[in-house]
Amino acid sequence: SLGAVAGPWSAWMPQNIAAFEGTCVAIPCRFDYPDELRPSAIHGIWYFNSPYPKNYPPVVYKSRTNVVHESFQGRTRLLGDLYLRNCTLQINRLSPELTGKYYFRGDLGGYNQYTYSEHSNLEIINKPTIVSPSEVLAESEVELRCLVPDNCPEMKPIVTWMKHEGLEEHSVYGLVEEEARSWTLVSLLKFTPSRENNGHEVGCKVTYTNTTFEFDGFATLDIKYTPRILEVNSSVEIIEASQVLLVCMVDSNPLALITWLREDVVLLEELATNLTLQLDNVTYTQDGIYTCLAENLYGKENRSLALTVMYAPWKPSVNASVVAVEGEPVTILCSTQSNPEPIITIFKEKKIVATVIYENQLVLEIPVVSHEDDGEYWCMAENQYGQRGSAFNLTVEFAPLILLESKCTAARDTVQCVCAAKSNPEPVITFELPARNVTVNETDREFVYSQKTGYTVTSILTLRGEVDSQLYIVCAARNVYGTKHQQLQFHHSNSLMWAKVGPVGAVVAFAILIAVVCYVSQTRKKKNMNESSSFIQTENPPVVFSGDYRTQGGLEKSESKEICSLESH
Ligand SMILES: *[C@@H]1O[C@H](CO)[C@@H](O)[C@H](O)[C@H]1NC(C)=O
Ligand SMILES: *[C@@H]1O[C@H](CO)[C@@H](O)[C@H](O)[C@H]1NC(C)=O
Ligand SMILES: *[C@@H]1O[C@H](CO)[C@@H](O)[C@H](O)[C@H]1NC(C)=O
Ligand SMILES: *[C@@H]1O[C@H](CO)[C@@H](O)[C@H](O)[C@H]1NC(C)=O
Ligand SMILES: *[C@@H]1O[C@H](CO)[C@@H](O)[C@H](O)[C@H]1NC(C)=O
Ligand SMILES: *[C@@H]1O[C@H](CO)[C@@H](O)[C@H](O)[C@H]1NC(C)=O
Ligand SMILES: *[C@@H]1O[C@H](CO)[C@@H](O)[C@H](O)[C@H]1NC(C)=O
Ligand SMILES: *[C@@H]1O[C@H](CO)[C@@H](O)[C@H](O)[C@H]1NC(C)=O
Ligand SMILES: *[C@@H]1O[C@H](CO)[C@@H](O)[C@H](O)[C@H]1NC(C)=O
């Protein structure tokens, strides 16, 4: 195309041309003028940065006088033959300030002088350009180009790559590209990048034979790849109310959107390299599978872990109050929740009634409930993180039972009958004297005194006057479940003895008897206490009781002790 001239006054030269500092450049140029001019002499001028002589632009080259601007002194030479309409200009020892526009002016004598508007932009560079595709993906082949202008006829550039040795499957080859007579040496580096190559710097070096010129250019590899989760916590067991930090560290380019999920519910997300999920005061509701998900344009990865929240048993729930009739079956459920599952035990007065290991509920089954099962129970649940207990009452309703201590005692002029009966609801006790056709009960204060302890009612009937040998007294105890009758036995022996020794002797004998009884019973009690304390030590239940749990045995003992010490005084 250099030969084809667009019009009579026209020129051609590359619009852009580049060269390295210190080397040279040859700007190819061709000009034309109307053929009818037939000039006798042809001169040419190269101007720097302005086409107009009136502006006095620096003269780069002037064939008529060889007077040039000092910046170009000894640096320029016309390679072309003006008579062949060839205005090719060479500039040597290029320095950065020579970057700019170069205009050619033809001088054909007289008024036939003309500065062509076509001009060249010269760029003086000091490093080669490395061009990479807009997107470089890991694991797919890429080609980097190192562009080196090659417009100095006397100096040929040599291009070498630097720091490319570690790149997978790399290969290098060169080619020359021409664009409008401006030449570029292109060196290609082909390789398959890996994610590890991201951020790596490769270089391109330009040298010239027999010179010390060396120009380096560098490019940092920006390799896109799918996120990879480098580190995430493994499954963990945590104690309730503590703080948990779950860390997810991700390698990706570009940055990944990191998301923490619990069972598909998004808890936290951020565009980052790592994301920490902080859970304060964890509760059992936060137990579950946690997933860290990292995603960018090129793919995604996820990793999951199980967070197990360990906690002490909840206060067991039991049937609030159970009322049953003797003989019926009773089922009581004690249930709780804990992690790990607890040991559940049901106690009644320190005795283990039922127990279950590593289950959340315990069923106490009494196929035939007896009045002895009546009382307060505790259900205790325990694991290594703590224990909780709940109390419940089992109330057994039963028909009256007349107790052994029921009897009559006859003194000289009084008869005292004791009738003790136990039932739930508490019994109503009546004394019947069939021979006299009389029935008395506690409403008859003159004869009957009644006292109640727990389910036991003790009624004392006192009769004064002659003791009738025919007298027999029946005690009747009654509640909704039935009535029990029992004839009360007489104990006459004592009254006979009292008759023989007389009233004074009787008082003395009574005092001695009390003393003996107290001595014997106290000694026995001491012995019992010693025995029972050693018994308690060895038979201690394995589970520790909570502060709420109290025994009643101690109270009974101290009471009987007091009575005896009162009596012995
Ligand atoms: C102009 O002159 C240069 C230097 O002698 C030469 O390399 C080039 O081929 C010439 N151009 C044309 C179009 O003849
Ligand atoms: C480099 O210099 C050597 C010795 O001076 C010479 O033989 C050789 O031709 C030169 N090479 C170039 C490319 O100028
Ligand atoms: C999770 O990992 C991070 C970093 O290794 C650690 O600091 C943190 O304590 C871990 N969290 C748990 C619950 O183990
Ligand atoms: C932890 O959570 C429980 C239940 O939500 C709450 O009662 C307790 O006060 C919390 N403790 C702290 C230290 O925030
Ligand atoms: C996690 O990855 C697995 C397989 O790679 C996929 O089946 C699952 O759906 C992913 N989970 C989430 C929450 O993206
Ligand atoms: C105790 O509660 C459980 C479940 O609520 C029930 O099956 C059981 O019959 C109850 N027991 C009594 C005695 O009420
Ligand atoms: C069980 O009965 C006793 C005596 O009547 C009472 O003091 C206690 O509070 C009851 N306990 C429960 C759990 O109802
Ligand atoms: C006892 O009294 C009832 C009625 O009050 C009477 O029917 C009965 O005959 C009497 N029995 C005797 C032995 O007196
Ligand atoms: C006691 O006896 C009287 C009459 O003797 C009777 O009215 C009353 O109902 C009896 N009380 C009970 C608790 O049975």
Describe the structure.
The protein is mainly beta. It has five domains: 11-125, Sandwich (Immunoglobulin-like); 129-221, Immunoglobulin-like (Sandwich), CATH 2.60.40; 225-310, Immunoglobulins (Immunoglobulin-like), CATH 2.60.40; 317-396, Immunoglobulins (Immunoglobulin-like, Sandwich), CATH 2.60.40.10; 399-493, Immunoglobulins (Immunoglobulin-like, Sandwich), CATH 2.60.40. Helix content is 11%, strand content 50%. It is built from two helices and 43 strands. The strands form ten sheets. Strands 28, 30, 31, 33, 34, 35, 36, 39, 40 and 43 form a ten-stranded mixed beta sheet that branches. A five-stranded mixed beta sheet has the order 2-10-9-5-6, with no helix packed on it. Strand 25 (288-296) and strand 26 (299-310) form a beta hairpin. Helix 1 runs antiparallel to helix 2. The radius of gyration is 59 Å and the shape is rod-shaped. Residues 1-6, 495-521 and 523-569 have low confidence and may be disordered. Bound molecules: 2-acetamido-2-deoxy-beta-D-glucopyranose (9 copies). One 2-acetamido-2-deoxy-beta-D-glucopyranose binds next to loops.
